Amino acid sequence: AGNRTFTMIKPDAVVANNVGAITKLIEEAGFRIVALKKTQLTQELAGQFYAVHKERPFYKDLCAYMSSGPIVPMILEKANAVEDFRKLIGATDPKKAEPGTIRNLFAKSIEANAIHGSDSDGNAEIEGNFFFSNFEKF
Ligand code: CMP
């Protein structure tokens, strides 16, 4: 057992058929998948999910991009989940992501950066509950 984080594989990585490769790296790094589905956001739902970035210059583009195709949200469990998962995915900008990280391997750009990872335990809980109800978490 451990604590939890939230992630979603973004449209660029889903469209590139990298769901299996990314999920394999996540499991090999010791994370247990608690919940998983494939879905697609509307622009409005993407706006709600990323409401904390509302005032950022990239917000509108981000919402258009995140609703442009299917995504694969997941809840993950591991000791020290939030911090360890952010290490596994690497920096937001793939040019700055360490070799071997998921963004280094799969991201296309700072926006189409393959995967999301929650930045705190509180946000992990909020973001996981955005996509999953309690009877989808095992
Ligand atoms: P994510 O970790 O999901 O959180 C916000 C997202 O905004 C980020 O990943 C990127 O997909 C996107 N984004 C686009 N441009 C930028 C930028 N300049 N700085 C940070 N995030 C950006």
From TrEMBL:
EC number: 2.7.4.6
One Pfam assignment: NDK
One of the record's GO molecular function terms: nucleoside diphosphate kinase activity
Entries under Gene3D superfamilies matching the protein: Nucleoside diphosphate kinase-like domain (3.30.70.141)
Record field: transmembrane: none
Enzyme class: transferase
Chain positions recorded as ATP binding sites: K10, F58, R86, T92, R103, N113
Residues of the active site: H116
UniProt keyword terms in alphabetical order: ATP-binding, Kinase, Nucleotide-binding, Phosphoprotein, Transferase
Residue runs in coiled coils: none
Cross-referenced CDD domains: NDPk_I (cd04413)
InterPro entries assigned to the protein according to its UniProt record, in alphabetical order: NDK-like_dom (IPR034907), NDK-like_dom_sf (IPR036850), Nucleoside_diP_kinase (IPR001564)
Domain annotation Nucleoside diphosphate kinase-like: ranges: 2-136
Protein family (similarity comment): Belongs to the NDK family.
Name under which the protein is recorded: Nucleoside-diphosphate kinase
Species, as recorded: Chryseosolibacter indicus
